[in-house]
Design goal:
Blueprint lengths: L2 H18 L11 H11 L3 E3 L6 E3 L1 H20 L3 E2 L5 E3 H4 L3 H7 L4 E6 L2 E9 L4 H11 L8 E10 L14 E11 L2 H22 L5 E4 L11 E9 L4 E12 L1 H6 L2 E3 L5 E3 L1 E8 L1 H10 L16 E5 L7 H17 L4 E3 L7 H10 L4 E5 L1 H6 L1 E6 L5 E5 L3 H26 L1 E3 L3 H9 L3 E6 L3 H11 L7 E6 L20 E8 L1
Length: 505
Protein backbone atom coordinates (compact mmCIF):
# COMPACT_ATOMS: atom_id res chain seq x y z
CA UNK A 1 0.00 0.00 0.00
CA UNK A 2 1.43 3.35 -1.01
CA UNK A 3 1.77 6.38 1.23
CA UNK A 4 -0.83 8.17 -0.90
CA UNK A 5 -3.31 5.32 -0.30
CA UNK A 6 -2.70 5.41 3.47
CA UNK A 7 -3.24 9.18 3.59
CA UNK A 8 -6.36 8.84 1.46
CA UNK A 9 -7.78 6.10 3.73
CA UNK A 10 -7.03 8.07 6.90
CA UNK A 11 -8.65 11.15 5.41
CA UNK A 12 -11.71 9.11 4.43
CA UNK A 13 -12.04 7.65 7.93
CA UNK A 14 -11.78 11.13 9.44
CA UNK A 15 -14.40 12.57 7.09
CA UNK A 16 -16.71 9.63 7.78
CA UNK A 17 -16.40 10.23 11.53
CA UNK A 18 -17.14 13.93 11.09
CA UNK A 19 -20.10 13.13 8.89
CA UNK A 20 -21.75 10.45 11.03
CA UNK A 21 -21.40 11.78 14.56
CA UNK A 22 -21.12 14.84 16.75
CA UNK A 23 -19.57 14.24 20.14
CA UNK A 24 -18.73 16.38 23.17
CA UNK A 25 -15.12 16.44 24.26
CA UNK A 26 -16.12 16.77 27.93
CA UNK A 27 -18.26 14.62 30.22
CA UNK A 28 -20.81 16.05 32.61
CA UNK A 29 -19.69 13.95 35.59
CA UNK A 30 -15.98 14.48 34.95
CA UNK A 31 -15.55 18.15 34.05
CA UNK A 32 -18.84 19.95 34.58
CA UNK A 33 -17.66 23.49 33.86
CA UNK A 34 -16.05 22.65 30.52
CA UNK A 35 -18.97 20.37 29.65
CA UNK A 36 -21.46 23.19 30.25
CA UNK A 37 -19.43 25.71 28.24
CA UNK A 38 -19.20 23.23 25.38
CA UNK A 39 -22.90 22.33 25.38
CA UNK A 40 -24.26 25.88 25.21
CA UNK A 41 -22.10 26.54 22.13
CA UNK A 42 -22.45 23.15 20.42
CA UNK A 43 -26.23 23.13 20.91
CA UNK A 44 -26.31 26.59 19.28
CA UNK A 45 -27.73 28.46 22.25
CA UNK A 46 -24.94 31.05 22.28
CA UNK A 47 -21.92 32.23 20.37
CA UNK A 48 -19.00 33.89 22.10
CA UNK A 49 -18.58 37.61 21.51
CA UNK A 50 -15.40 39.68 21.17
CA UNK A 51 -15.78 41.04 24.73
CA UNK A 52 -15.40 38.67 27.68
CA UNK A 53 -18.63 37.97 29.54
CA UNK A 54 -20.88 39.07 26.66
CA UNK A 55 -22.62 36.46 24.53
CA UNK A 56 -24.67 36.32 21.37
CA UNK A 57 -28.01 34.65 22.03
CA UNK A 58 -28.80 32.48 19.03
CA UNK A 59 -32.37 31.83 17.86
CA UNK A 60 -32.72 28.63 19.92
CA UNK A 61 -32.08 30.54 23.15
CA UNK A 62 -34.28 33.47 22.20
CA UNK A 63 -37.14 31.10 21.32
CA UNK A 64 -36.95 29.55 24.80
CA UNK A 65 -36.96 33.04 26.32
CA UNK A 66 -39.98 34.00 24.20
CA UNK A 67 -41.85 30.88 25.35
CA UNK A 68 -41.33 31.81 29.00
CA UNK A 69 -42.33 35.38 28.21
CA UNK A 70 -45.50 34.17 26.46
CA UNK A 71 -46.51 32.42 29.69
CA UNK A 72 -45.47 35.07 32.19
CA UNK A 73 -46.62 38.27 30.49
CA UNK A 74 -50.35 37.37 30.31
CA UNK A 75 -50.23 36.13 33.91
CA UNK A 76 -48.95 39.42 35.30
CA UNK A 77 -51.43 41.33 33.15
CA UNK A 78 -54.17 39.37 34.95
CA UNK A 79 -52.71 41.00 38.09
CA UNK A 80 -53.13 44.41 36.43
CA UNK A 81 -49.40 44.88 35.88
CA UNK A 82 -48.70 47.18 32.92
CA UNK A 83 -45.65 46.96 30.66
CA UNK A 84 -43.47 50.03 30.19
CA UNK A 85 -39.92 50.94 29.27
CA UNK A 86 -37.44 53.24 31.02
CA UNK A 87 -34.04 54.39 29.67
CA UNK A 88 -31.04 52.22 30.47
CA UNK A 89 -28.92 55.09 31.81
CA UNK A 90 -29.07 56.44 35.34
CA UNK A 91 -27.28 59.28 37.10
CA UNK A 92 -24.67 57.92 39.46
CA UNK A 93 -26.03 60.28 42.12
CA UNK A 94 -29.42 58.55 41.87
CA UNK A 95 -27.77 55.15 42.23
CA UNK A 96 -26.08 56.34 45.42
CA UNK A 97 -29.29 57.72 46.91
CA UNK A 98 -30.14 54.39 48.58
CA UNK A 99 -26.81 53.42 50.16
CA UNK A 100 -27.51 49.72 50.79
CA UNK A 101 -28.73 49.36 47.23
CA UNK A 102 -25.69 51.11 45.73
CA UNK A 103 -23.24 49.17 47.90
CA UNK A 104 -24.65 45.89 46.57
CA UNK A 105 -23.91 46.91 42.96
CA UNK A 106 -21.02 49.36 43.27
CA UNK A 107 -18.34 46.92 42.09
CA UNK A 108 -20.41 45.86 39.06
CA UNK A 109 -21.68 49.21 37.78
CA UNK A 110 -20.51 50.10 34.26
CA UNK A 111 -20.09 53.83 33.64
CA UNK A 112 -20.17 55.80 30.39
CA UNK A 113 -17.62 58.59 30.77
CA UNK A 114 -16.97 59.72 27.17
CA UNK A 115 -19.00 60.78 24.16
CA UNK A 116 -16.77 60.50 21.11
CA UNK A 117 -13.55 62.26 22.11
CA UNK A 118 -15.23 64.43 24.73
CA UNK A 119 -15.28 63.58 28.42
CA UNK A 120 -18.82 63.75 29.78
CA UNK A 121 -19.48 66.29 32.52
CA UNK A 122 -21.59 63.76 34.42
CA UNK A 123 -20.82 60.02 34.09
CA UNK A 124 -23.85 57.87 33.34
CA UNK A 125 -24.29 54.40 34.81
CA UNK A 126 -25.81 51.59 32.75
CA UNK A 127 -28.65 50.09 34.76
CA UNK A 128 -27.74 47.14 36.98
CA UNK A 129 -31.40 47.27 38.10
CA UNK A 130 -34.03 49.98 37.70
CA UNK A 131 -35.23 50.94 41.18
CA UNK A 132 -33.30 54.21 41.14
CA UNK A 133 -34.33 54.92 37.54
CA UNK A 134 -38.04 54.39 38.03
CA UNK A 135 -38.84 55.57 41.54
CA UNK A 136 -38.26 59.31 40.99
CA UNK A 137 -41.16 59.04 38.54
CA UNK A 138 -43.28 57.01 40.94
CA UNK A 139 -42.89 60.02 43.24
CA UNK A 140 -44.20 62.23 40.44
CA UNK A 141 -47.10 59.99 39.39
CA UNK A 142 -48.41 58.94 42.82
CA UNK A 143 -50.32 61.64 44.69
CA UNK A 144 -53.31 60.04 46.37
CA UNK A 145 -54.64 56.62 47.33
CA UNK A 146 -56.59 56.45 44.05
CA UNK A 147 -53.23 56.32 42.20
CA UNK A 148 -52.46 53.02 43.94
CA UNK A 149 -51.53 50.35 43.37
CA UNK A 150 -49.05 51.27 40.65
CA UNK A 151 -47.64 48.09 39.09
CA UNK A 152 -45.20 48.33 36.18
CA UNK A 153 -43.00 45.79 34.44
CA UNK A 154 -40.37 46.09 31.75
CA UNK A 155 -38.70 43.51 29.53
CA UNK A 156 -35.17 44.76 29.06
CA UNK A 157 -31.46 44.14 29.49
CA UNK A 158 -29.20 45.04 32.40
CA UNK A 159 -25.43 45.24 32.75
CA UNK A 160 -23.53 44.00 35.79
CA UNK A 161 -19.79 43.98 35.16
CA UNK A 162 -19.13 40.88 37.25
CA UNK A 163 -15.70 40.24 38.70
CA UNK A 164 -14.04 36.90 37.97
CA UNK A 165 -14.89 34.33 35.33
CA UNK A 166 -18.30 34.88 33.73
CA UNK A 167 -20.53 31.90 32.90
CA UNK A 168 -22.97 32.02 29.96
CA UNK A 169 -26.56 32.61 31.13
CA UNK A 170 -25.66 32.00 34.79
CA UNK A 171 -23.38 34.97 35.37
CA UNK A 172 -22.88 37.12 32.29
CA UNK A 173 -22.12 40.83 32.12
CA UNK A 174 -25.26 41.63 30.17
CA UNK A 175 -28.46 39.64 30.33
CA UNK A 176 -32.14 39.83 29.48
CA UNK A 177 -34.79 39.88 32.17
CA UNK A 178 -38.12 41.23 33.24
CA UNK A 179 -38.27 43.52 36.22
CA UNK A 180 -41.49 44.38 37.97
CA UNK A 181 -41.84 47.37 40.30
CA UNK A 182 -44.98 47.83 42.40
CA UNK A 183 -46.23 50.39 44.92
CA UNK A 184 -49.11 49.78 47.34
CA UNK A 185 -51.01 51.60 50.02
CA UNK A 186 -50.50 48.81 52.56
CA UNK A 187 -47.80 46.37 53.58
CA UNK A 188 -50.27 43.47 53.39
CA UNK A 189 -50.97 44.15 49.69
CA UNK A 190 -47.27 44.27 48.91
CA UNK A 191 -46.62 41.03 50.77
CA UNK A 192 -49.46 39.25 48.95
CA UNK A 193 -48.15 40.32 45.55
CA UNK A 194 -44.61 39.12 46.31
CA UNK A 195 -45.92 35.63 47.09
CA UNK A 196 -48.15 35.60 44.00
CA UNK A 197 -45.21 36.52 41.78
CA UNK A 198 -43.01 33.87 43.39
CA UNK A 199 -45.60 31.24 42.55
CA UNK A 200 -45.41 32.30 38.89
CA UNK A 201 -41.64 31.87 39.05
CA UNK A 202 -42.11 28.38 40.48
CA UNK A 203 -44.39 27.56 37.56
CA UNK A 204 -41.79 28.80 35.04
CA UNK A 205 -39.20 26.43 36.45
CA UNK A 206 -41.30 23.42 37.31
CA UNK A 207 -44.06 23.48 34.66
CA UNK A 208 -42.04 24.76 31.70
CA UNK A 209 -38.36 23.99 32.35
CA UNK A 210 -39.05 20.78 34.35
CA UNK A 211 -36.65 22.03 37.03
CA UNK A 212 -37.64 21.54 40.69
CA UNK A 213 -37.29 24.55 42.99
CA UNK A 214 -37.62 25.37 46.68
CA UNK A 215 -39.53 28.51 47.59
CA UNK A 216 -38.10 30.39 50.54
CA UNK A 217 -36.54 33.53 51.98
CA UNK A 218 -32.92 34.60 51.63
CA UNK A 219 -30.90 35.37 54.72
CA UNK A 220 -30.17 38.90 55.89
CA UNK A 221 -26.68 38.63 54.39
CA UNK A 222 -28.03 37.79 50.92
CA UNK A 223 -31.09 40.03 50.94
CA UNK A 224 -31.22 42.35 47.92
CA UNK A 225 -29.55 45.69 48.65
CA UNK A 226 -32.15 48.10 50.01
CA UNK A 227 -34.84 45.44 50.55
CA UNK A 228 -36.45 44.37 53.81
CA UNK A 229 -36.55 40.74 52.66
CA UNK A 230 -35.94 38.69 49.52
CA UNK A 231 -38.09 35.73 48.50
CA UNK A 232 -36.50 33.23 46.14
CA UNK A 233 -37.03 30.09 44.11
CA UNK A 234 -33.85 28.10 44.65
CA UNK A 235 -32.44 25.46 42.31
CA UNK A 236 -29.78 22.87 43.20
CA UNK A 237 -27.32 21.34 40.71
CA UNK A 238 -26.43 17.81 41.92
CA UNK A 239 -23.35 17.47 39.68
CA UNK A 240 -21.62 20.43 41.32
CA UNK A 241 -23.30 20.57 44.74
CA UNK A 242 -24.19 24.22 44.17
CA UNK A 243 -27.40 26.20 44.43
CA UNK A 244 -28.68 28.76 41.94
CA UNK A 245 -30.93 31.66 42.85
CA UNK A 246 -33.55 31.10 40.17
CA UNK A 247 -35.72 34.22 40.50
CA UNK A 248 -36.55 36.69 43.26
CA UNK A 249 -39.31 38.89 44.62
CA UNK A 250 -37.99 41.61 46.94
CA UNK A 251 -40.10 43.24 49.63
CA UNK A 252 -38.68 46.76 49.70
CA UNK A 253 -40.83 48.01 52.55
CA UNK A 254 -40.68 51.81 52.64
CA UNK A 255 -36.90 52.17 52.27
CA UNK A 256 -36.93 53.42 48.68
CA UNK A 257 -40.15 55.37 49.25
CA UNK A 258 -38.38 57.35 51.94
CA UNK A 259 -35.33 58.13 49.80
CA UNK A 260 -37.29 59.02 46.66
CA UNK A 261 -40.27 60.63 48.46
CA UNK A 262 -42.88 58.28 47.06
CA UNK A 263 -45.74 59.55 49.22
CA UNK A 264 -49.51 59.64 48.90
CA UNK A 265 -52.52 61.05 50.66
CA UNK A 266 -54.64 58.24 52.09
CA UNK A 267 -58.43 58.16 52.37
CA UNK A 268 -58.17 60.04 55.68
CA UNK A 269 -56.20 62.79 53.92
CA UNK A 270 -53.08 61.90 55.83
CA UNK A 271 -49.75 61.83 54.03
CA UNK A 272 -47.89 58.51 54.18
CA UNK A 273 -45.33 56.47 52.24
CA UNK A 274 -46.07 53.62 49.85
CA UNK A 275 -45.00 50.00 50.32
CA UNK A 276 -42.97 48.60 47.42
CA UNK A 277 -41.83 45.39 45.75
CA UNK A 278 -39.42 44.65 42.93
CA UNK A 279 -39.23 41.25 41.24
CA UNK A 280 -37.51 39.59 38.30
CA UNK A 281 -36.31 36.51 36.46
CA UNK A 282 -33.70 36.43 33.72
CA UNK A 283 -32.08 34.36 30.99
CA UNK A 284 -30.38 32.55 33.87
CA UNK A 285 -33.40 30.26 33.56
CA UNK A 286 -31.96 28.86 30.33
CA UNK A 287 -28.56 28.06 31.81
CA UNK A 288 -30.17 26.39 34.81
CA UNK A 289 -32.24 24.19 32.49
CA UNK A 290 -29.08 23.15 30.60
CA UNK A 291 -27.25 22.29 33.81
CA UNK A 292 -30.09 20.20 35.23
CA UNK A 293 -31.12 18.21 32.13
CA UNK A 294 -28.14 18.14 29.77
CA UNK A 295 -26.16 14.93 29.28
CA UNK A 296 -23.08 13.65 27.48
CA UNK A 297 -24.87 13.90 24.13
CA UNK A 298 -25.68 17.58 24.64
CA UNK A 299 -28.82 19.53 25.40
CA UNK A 300 -32.09 17.91 26.57
CA UNK A 301 -35.09 20.17 26.09
CA UNK A 302 -38.42 19.89 27.91
CA UNK A 303 -41.14 19.72 25.22
CA UNK A 304 -42.92 22.84 26.48
CA UNK A 305 -39.96 25.09 25.65
CA UNK A 306 -38.58 23.24 22.63
CA UNK A 307 -39.06 25.27 19.45
CA UNK A 308 -38.85 21.94 17.58
CA UNK A 309 -40.63 19.18 19.51
CA UNK A 310 -40.32 16.50 16.83
CA UNK A 311 -37.70 16.14 14.13
CA UNK A 312 -38.57 13.80 11.25
CA UNK A 313 -35.69 12.08 9.41
CA UNK A 314 -35.95 9.91 6.30
CA UNK A 315 -33.80 6.77 6.40
CA UNK A 316 -33.06 5.78 2.79
CA UNK A 317 -31.72 2.40 1.72
CA UNK A 318 -30.11 1.38 -1.55
CA UNK A 319 -32.66 0.53 -4.25
CA UNK A 320 -35.50 1.42 -1.84
CA UNK A 321 -38.45 3.71 -2.52
CA UNK A 322 -36.70 6.97 -1.62
CA UNK A 323 -39.45 9.12 -3.07
CA UNK A 324 -42.10 7.28 -1.10
CA UNK A 325 -40.08 7.64 2.11
CA UNK A 326 -39.67 11.38 1.59
CA UNK A 327 -43.37 11.80 0.85
CA UNK A 328 -44.23 9.91 4.04
CA UNK A 329 -41.91 12.19 6.04
CA UNK A 330 -43.50 15.31 4.59
CA UNK A 331 -46.99 13.99 5.31
CA UNK A 332 -45.98 13.15 8.89
CA UNK A 333 -44.69 16.68 9.50
CA UNK A 334 -47.86 18.13 7.98
CA UNK A 335 -50.11 16.01 10.22
CA UNK A 336 -48.19 16.95 13.35
CA UNK A 337 -48.07 20.66 12.57
CA UNK A 338 -51.80 20.72 11.84
CA UNK A 339 -52.29 19.34 15.35
CA UNK A 340 -50.20 22.16 16.88
CA UNK A 341 -47.16 19.96 17.44
CA UNK A 342 -43.94 21.77 16.51
CA UNK A 343 -42.40 19.42 13.95
CA UNK A 344 -39.80 19.83 11.20
CA UNK A 345 -38.34 17.68 8.45
CA UNK A 346 -34.59 17.23 8.02
CA UNK A 347 -34.38 16.46 4.31
CA UNK A 348 -30.72 17.38 3.84
CA UNK A 349 -29.15 14.83 1.51
CA UNK A 350 -25.52 15.77 2.22
CA UNK A 351 -25.60 14.24 5.72
CA UNK A 352 -26.12 10.63 6.71
CA UNK A 353 -29.02 9.74 9.02
CA UNK A 354 -26.50 9.00 11.79
CA UNK A 355 -25.01 12.45 11.47
CA UNK A 356 -28.51 13.96 11.71
CA UNK A 357 -29.33 11.87 14.78
CA UNK A 358 -26.25 13.22 16.58
CA UNK A 359 -26.99 16.81 15.61
CA UNK A 360 -30.59 16.78 16.82
CA UNK A 361 -29.59 14.96 20.00
CA UNK A 362 -27.01 17.69 20.58
CA UNK A 363 -29.75 20.30 20.15
CA UNK A 364 -32.01 18.47 22.59
CA UNK A 365 -35.10 17.91 20.41
CA UNK A 366 -37.51 15.83 22.56
CA UNK A 367 -38.60 13.31 19.88
CA UNK A 368 -37.05 11.93 16.72
CA UNK A 369 -39.14 10.15 14.10
CA UNK A 370 -37.33 7.90 11.62
CA UNK A 371 -39.07 6.61 8.50
CA UNK A 372 -37.44 3.97 6.29
CA UNK A 373 -38.71 1.48 3.71
CA UNK A 374 -39.78 -1.06 6.36
CA UNK A 375 -41.73 1.62 8.23
CA UNK A 376 -43.34 2.61 4.95
CA UNK A 377 -44.36 -0.98 4.25
CA UNK A 378 -45.71 -1.49 7.78
CA UNK A 379 -47.57 1.84 7.82
CA UNK A 380 -45.70 3.00 10.93
CA UNK A 381 -42.89 5.26 12.13
CA UNK A 382 -39.98 4.64 14.46
CA UNK A 383 -39.81 7.07 17.40
CA UNK A 384 -36.85 7.79 19.69
CA UNK A 385 -37.11 9.77 22.95
CA UNK A 386 -34.30 12.23 23.76
CA UNK A 387 -34.79 12.13 27.54
CA UNK A 388 -34.18 8.40 28.05
CA UNK A 389 -33.32 7.00 24.61
CA UNK A 390 -36.36 4.70 24.51
CA UNK A 391 -37.39 3.52 21.02
CA UNK A 392 -40.81 2.43 19.80
CA UNK A 393 -42.89 1.92 16.69
CA UNK A 394 -46.15 3.83 16.29
CA UNK A 395 -48.80 3.07 13.69
CA UNK A 396 -49.57 5.95 11.33
CA UNK A 397 -53.24 5.85 12.30
CA UNK A 398 -52.34 6.55 15.97
CA UNK A 399 -49.46 8.92 15.34
CA UNK A 400 -50.81 12.30 16.42
CA UNK A 401 -52.43 11.13 19.65
CA UNK A 402 -49.45 8.98 20.64
CA UNK A 403 -46.98 11.80 19.98
CA UNK A 404 -49.08 14.16 22.13
CA UNK A 405 -49.04 11.60 24.96
CA UNK A 406 -45.30 11.10 24.60
CA UNK A 407 -44.57 14.83 24.82
CA UNK A 408 -46.63 15.11 28.01
CA UNK A 409 -44.88 12.05 29.41
CA UNK A 410 -41.42 13.37 28.57
CA UNK A 411 -42.17 16.71 30.24
CA UNK A 412 -43.32 15.02 33.43
CA UNK A 413 -40.55 12.41 33.40
CA UNK A 414 -37.86 15.07 33.07
CA UNK A 415 -39.25 16.85 36.12
CA UNK A 416 -39.57 13.61 38.11
CA UNK A 417 -36.00 12.53 37.31
CA UNK A 418 -34.59 15.97 38.16
CA UNK A 419 -36.54 16.11 41.43
CA UNK A 420 -35.41 12.64 42.44
CA UNK A 421 -31.76 13.54 41.78
CA UNK A 422 -32.18 16.79 43.72
CA UNK A 423 -33.92 15.12 46.66
CA UNK A 424 -31.22 12.45 46.88
CA UNK A 425 -28.73 15.27 47.46
CA UNK A 426 -30.58 16.78 50.43
CA UNK A 427 -28.93 15.90 53.75
CA UNK A 428 -30.44 16.75 57.13
CA UNK A 429 -27.80 17.57 59.75
CA UNK A 430 -27.85 18.63 63.41
CA UNK A 431 -24.16 19.14 64.24
CA UNK A 432 -21.16 20.94 62.79
CA UNK A 433 -19.34 17.67 62.09
CA UNK A 434 -22.35 16.33 60.16
CA UNK A 435 -22.50 19.63 58.28
CA UNK A 436 -18.85 19.44 57.18
CA UNK A 437 -19.21 15.79 56.12
CA UNK A 438 -22.32 16.56 54.03
CA UNK A 439 -20.60 19.58 52.50
CA UNK A 440 -17.65 17.45 51.41
CA UNK A 441 -20.15 15.14 49.69
CA UNK A 442 -21.59 18.11 47.74
CA UNK A 443 -24.97 17.87 49.46
CA UNK A 444 -27.72 20.44 49.80
CA UNK A 445 -27.80 20.72 53.57
CA UNK A 446 -30.93 21.27 55.68
CA UNK A 447 -29.99 22.34 59.18
CA UNK A 448 -31.57 23.95 62.27
CA UNK A 449 -30.48 27.58 62.48
CA UNK A 450 -30.32 30.31 65.11
CA UNK A 451 -30.96 33.00 62.47
CA UNK A 452 -28.09 35.26 63.55
CA UNK A 453 -26.18 37.24 60.93
CA UNK A 454 -22.89 37.07 62.83
CA UNK A 455 -23.05 33.27 62.88
CA UNK A 456 -23.86 33.10 59.16
CA UNK A 457 -20.75 35.15 58.44
CA UNK A 458 -18.78 32.89 60.76
CA UNK A 459 -19.92 29.80 58.84
CA UNK A 460 -18.90 31.46 55.57
CA UNK A 461 -15.46 32.25 56.95
CA UNK A 462 -14.94 28.75 58.39
CA UNK A 463 -15.86 27.06 55.10
CA UNK A 464 -13.98 29.38 52.72
CA UNK A 465 -11.90 27.38 50.23
CA UNK A 466 -10.69 27.46 46.65
CA UNK A 467 -14.17 26.49 45.46
CA UNK A 468 -15.94 29.12 47.55
CA UNK A 469 -17.62 29.50 50.91
CA UNK A 470 -20.88 27.92 52.00
CA UNK A 471 -23.87 30.18 52.36
CA UNK A 472 -27.55 30.03 53.21
CA UNK A 473 -29.48 29.18 50.06
CA UNK A 474 -32.86 29.90 51.64
CA UNK A 475 -35.10 29.28 54.61
CA UNK A 476 -37.95 27.27 53.03
CA UNK A 477 -41.54 28.42 53.34
CA UNK A 478 -42.44 24.77 53.91
CA UNK A 479 -40.71 24.35 57.29
CA UNK A 480 -40.22 20.88 58.77
CA UNK A 481 -41.28 20.52 62.40
CA UNK A 482 -38.75 22.13 64.75
CA UNK A 483 -38.84 20.20 68.02
CA UNK A 484 -38.58 22.15 71.24
CA UNK A 485 -35.00 22.35 72.45
CA UNK A 486 -33.44 21.91 68.99
CA UNK A 487 -30.03 23.57 68.81
CA UNK A 488 -28.45 25.44 65.92
CA UNK A 489 -25.89 23.22 64.18
CA UNK A 490 -23.27 26.02 64.12
CA UNK A 491 -23.73 28.00 67.33
CA UNK A 492 -25.41 25.50 69.66
CA UNK A 493 -27.91 28.27 70.46
CA UNK A 494 -31.67 27.87 70.33
CA UNK A 495 -32.71 27.12 66.72
CA UNK A 496 -35.45 29.32 65.26
CA UNK A 497 -35.93 27.72 61.83
CA UNK A 498 -34.72 25.15 59.32
CA UNK A 499 -32.43 26.51 56.60
CA UNK A 500 -30.87 25.15 53.42
CA UNK A 501 -27.10 25.62 53.04
CA UNK A 502 -24.67 25.01 50.20
CA UNK A 503 -22.19 26.57 47.85
CA UNK A 504 -23.79 28.75 45.22
CA UNK A 505 -23.24 30.15 41.73
Amino acid sequence: MTVDTIVKNQSGEKNKKEETGLKLANRKDENFGDWYSEVVVSAELIEHYDISGLYILRPSAVEIWETLQAFFDPEIKKMNVKNCYFPMFVLESHLKKQKDHYDSFSQEVALVTKSGESTMDIPLAIRPSSETIMYPYYSKWIRGHRDLPLKLNQWCNVVRWVIGDPTPFIRSREFLWQEGHSAFATEAEAHAEALEILELYRRIYEEYLAVPVIKGTKSEVDTFGGAVSTNTVEVFIPNTGRGIQGATAHCLGQKFAEKFEVNFEDDKREKTMVWQNSWGYSTRTIGTMVMVHGDDKGLVLPPKVASIQVIVIPVPYKDADTLGTNDACELTVKMLCESKIRAELDSRDNYSPERKYSEWEMKGVPLRIEIGPNDLANKQVSVVRRDNGAKMDIANADLVEEIKKLLINIQQNMFNVAKQKRDECIQVVHTWDEFVEALNQRKMILAPWCDEKVMELDVKERTESEIGAVQILCSPFDQPELLEGTKCFASDKHAKKWTYWGRSY
